Amino acid sequence: MAHRFLLPDIGEGLEEAEVVEWLVAVGDVVARDQPLVEVLTDKASSELPSPVAGTVLRLGAAEGERIQVGEVLIEIDDGSDGGQDALRPADTSDTTEADITEVPATPQPTTTPTGGRVKASPATRRLALEVGVDLAALRGSGPGGRISADDVRAAATLGGLSATEPLKPVSRSPISPIHSELGQMEAGRHDLRGIRGVVARNMARSWSEIPHIHTMDEVDASLLVDFRNRIRSMDRQGADAVTHLVVAAVATARALRRFPMVNGHLEGDPADTIVIPDSVNLGIAVATQRGLIVPVVRDADNLDLFAMAQAITEVAGRARADDLSAADLSGATFTITNYGSLGGRFATPIIPPGQGAILGLGSVAERPVAVDGAVVARPTLPVVLGADHRLIDGDLAEAFRRAVVDDLIEPLHLLVGD
Length: 418
Known about the structure:
By secondary structure, this protein is of the alpha+beta class. The protein folds into 3 domains: 2-109, CATH 2.40.50.100; 118-171, no CATH class; 210-416, Chloramphenicol acetyltransferase-like domain (Chloramphenicol Acetyltransferase, 2-Layer Sandwich). Strands 11, 14, 17, 18, 19, 20 and 21 form a 7-stranded mixed beta sheet that branches. α5 crosses α6. It is 23% helix and 25% strand. A hairpin with a 2-residue loop joins β20 and β21.
């Protein structure tokens, strides 16, 4: 009997998804729960497993094509009618509607293991094939042993490692160039799809709908650098993960609790409703091999410095390992982007859809600073706040940014509470 596998609502009422990569082809015999396809929504990437065992009869969409929720994604014959005809993949012209059942799908994150399958994203699998690395022989550095692209590159550099040898990610300088393939694309026309397509749609929507204002500052980071170094030398769980971003995240969460309108956003078309969330959920922008990903740290205003460090380290690691679900990428009320990790000083970041503001952090570096009438070299941190001017006026933007900056200038505030 043939089964129609329908594209499910992967989460939050999304209406369509893009077929990123088919993991099977017409004529393949598949097992129940075997991953069939990787799809991408505006929230996350997911692998969809087969609801039945059988033979693939038809693929409902090509790679790169976007299809609607409820449309047929794939047809599979479970062979229940018996005989060799059940195994023939191509000709389904004699199949009647009575012979077909429509099967609801159950999505799963791309990293959910099924049947002992090596845990790696399709992109990582392609890379492994290109460089001749056997994924089954690797131990991944990602959460749950997931194999990342860096793991594959490291194995290729070392000529391959056995499964018993731990593998560390390739270390990279925080200053550009980060990846040798950065900015590379063959001449010609290319479909705008995948993560880049999602980013493009979201940025176009934000830029067209939100009247942005930006306020900037550059603060003396001498005490911040000293504070970070002292904290990281402590013998305490999470201390070594405290970075300037972590300190800024705690300071931002405190300021959002103090100025809840900055944690809010506008809804409606046209916008006619102000929404003030009852929690502070920070989106943390993470640059990955596939593009910019923004996982969410929930209830950030309830996290102290060390808990925030652990939370950001965990979600950033999972983002780079392509180990995030739609839930991990939804619900942010405010976003922080640490573009300074790439060496930048000032930028004007775009506010994500469904939010009212964004904080950008530049690179910490020695720059000339006036101290008691003399110019001296001190570490400074550029800080930029982007705000939706329909909701946030200049005075509120300045007050909020000042609250964040005060805690960055004197981070001991973060250890003594409000």
